[in-house]
Amino acid sequence: MEIWITLIVIMLVLSGLSYRATQKAQDTRPMFIWGFNSMAPVALAYCYWGTGDFGHKALMIVFVGIYLLRMNIVLTRWYVNTAAAKLGGVIPEQQQPILAVMMVNIFGWLYCLPFYWAADQQGPFGAMQWLAIVVYIIGTIYHFGSDYQKRRFKQNPNNRGRLLNTGFWGTSRHPNYFGDFLIFVSFGLLANHWIGLIAPLTNIGQYYGDAIPKSEKMSGERYGEQWENYKRKVKCFIPFVV
């Protein structure tokens, strides 16, 4: 019971702070920053109340820590090159604080739910933990690598008006989203419980139900025929598959 009371308090505080910060900024950046970073206190709360050993809890915190370090770099230093930055002209300002609260709760409750079971794991790492490490590494390479490649591409003035379609972006139209999905798959694997599926299922549902359609629409409007040719050659999400 203590863990749930702790989480309710954390989520109420973060929801209020994210609402106020986004309302004051009148920009989409705070809602993403607050949403992603809500994972840190939630993961720590699961570790504090969990009955697992140090090794399993440490692995969970390392996963979250590396992920949030990378996302904060993207959301601060590289933000202008992200699809999220373009949503300011798509999402009405009055809706942004509400979406900030929604993001905090999606990340804090649904994406972190596997940690409830992960924090209770004990003993040597088993097949699920080692598989989680492999999936996490692949996801991190795809997620960070594709964002870094896009940033380098956008910084080159010779690429103005051109579509990035090589490297990671030649394997999938949304390689950063695919990498992100793998990371949440790894979170689910840490749980060693079927309910861990809630994290990757929420993630892929969010992408296919919202982020990918918006991103593809904006890209189609910006790049026209270049985008249509790209769509015919490169798969949408899973590299070379679908």
UniProtKB/TrEMBL annotation:
It comes from the Bacteria. This is 3-oxo-5-alpha-steroid 4-dehydrogenase. The chain crosses the membrane at residues 30-49, 58-78, 98-118, 125-144, 181-201. It holds the Pfam family DUF1295. The gene is pigN. Keywords: Membrane, Transmembrane, Transmembrane helix. One of its GO terms (cellular component) is membrane.
